[in-house]
Amino acid sequence: MTLCITDLGKHYGESPVFEHVSLDVGSGEFVAIVGESGVGKSTLLNCMAGLDHWDAGTVVCDGIDIGALDAEARARWRRAHVGFVFQAFHVLPHLDVAQNVALPLMLLHRSGPEWDARVAQMLDAVGLAGLGERLPQQLSGGQLQRVAIARALVHRPSLLLADEPTGNLDPTTAARVMDVLIAQTREHGASLVLVTHSEAAAARADRVLHLSADGIRSAPLPA
Asked: Which end is more exposed in the chain, N or C (fewer Cβ atoms within 10 Å of the end residue's Cβ)?
């Protein structure tokens, strides 16, 4: 998926979160976004997914102006084309691991042996084979984040958005989670946009952008 953001601005009341943000993400590209706390990195990611509203500018994905869609059409577009990995995991505690991973398929009304096999394939890909019947409270933080990655990728989205996916993890587990995230997006040719404070995570991107209140600019890759 190609993503084109032009002169995007977001305000809370009279206070700007960010203004004049323009960036392009190519098909299959991995872009990391860094910046100070409170500058709106997560808000920008939410705008890319059509989860948040903006006050100026456009978000266009594969020629579709997301801002021009009504709420229902935007939700349908997001379900079909976007995967989102949250820092806080957001797995449902009353569903087992396999059911959590299968949620995007359920929302797309995809069921049957083919899709059951797809869930099992994703659990294997993220190193959780055999754990499908476990409940989330039986897993570690690193395992929960891998459940979130499997869930975000199970429907083969063309755009994956990840908000501080390693923020709650120790360095070894964080590196393992990034391995899975990058391997899976590369395998499916998905575009990946990562918001992070981690220099180690940003260093693995094709390109790093620095967000500030007055725009976004290229930043050097961390050493």
From this structure: C
